[in-house]
From TrEMBL:
PANTHER family: NITROGEN METABOLITE REPRESSION PROTEIN NMRA FAMILY MEMBER, NMRA LIKE REDOX SENSOR 1-RELATED
Keyword Cytoplasm: no
Alphabetical list of InterPro entries matching this protein: NAD(P)-bd_dom_sf (IPR036291), NmrA-like (IPR008030), NmrA-like_oxidored (IPR051164)
Family: Belongs to the NmrA-type oxidoreductase family.
Sorted UniProt keywords: NADP
All residue ranges annotated as the NmrA-like domain in the record: 4-81
Official protein name in the record: NmrA domain protein
């Protein structure tokens, strides 16, 4: 990111769901506080969803300097040569299965879910 590039092995319009660790912890706490409601339930958790271009734009706003998305899905082939397991996870989670978190429902359950921009500012990325 410091070089002004977001270089991930995805198409620029790939939508990525992400979750701050604090938000994941909040859902765990909610489940423990309300076990009757959550025992036997399974659902994907996320706190934001953005395209690669949107993520780069968010970094641009927060860092106060240009950040461009420069990734290419062909990069998965390069990644597979270095780490086949990690490349397989990317392929499965992003391109085949995809995350299926229902953000409106998650926000109703935990209204304080972090958006990427808020998260970056809290973690000290502003004007880096």
């Amino acid at each position: 990111m410091q070089s002004g590039r977001l270089d991930l092995p995805f198409h620029p319009d790939t939508r990525l769901m992400m979750c701050a660790v604090a938000d994941l912890a909040a859902f765990v706490a909610i489940a423990f506080d309300q076990p009757d409601k959550f025992i036997g339930c399974s659902f994907d958790v996320a706190s934001d969803e953005m395209t690669m271009r949107d993520i780069a734009s968010t970094f641009t706003r927060v860092m106060g300097r240009p950040v461009a998305f420069t990734g290419d899905p062909a990069g998965l082939d390069v990644l597979a040569e270095m780490d086949a397991d990690l490349a397989g996870i990317f392929r499965f989670e992003i391109f085949e299965r995809g995350f299926r978190a229902f953000l409106p429902g998650l926000r109703a359950l935990h209204p304080g879910l972090s958006r990427l921009e808020e998260y970056l500012r809290q973690k000290g990325w502003a004007n880096r």
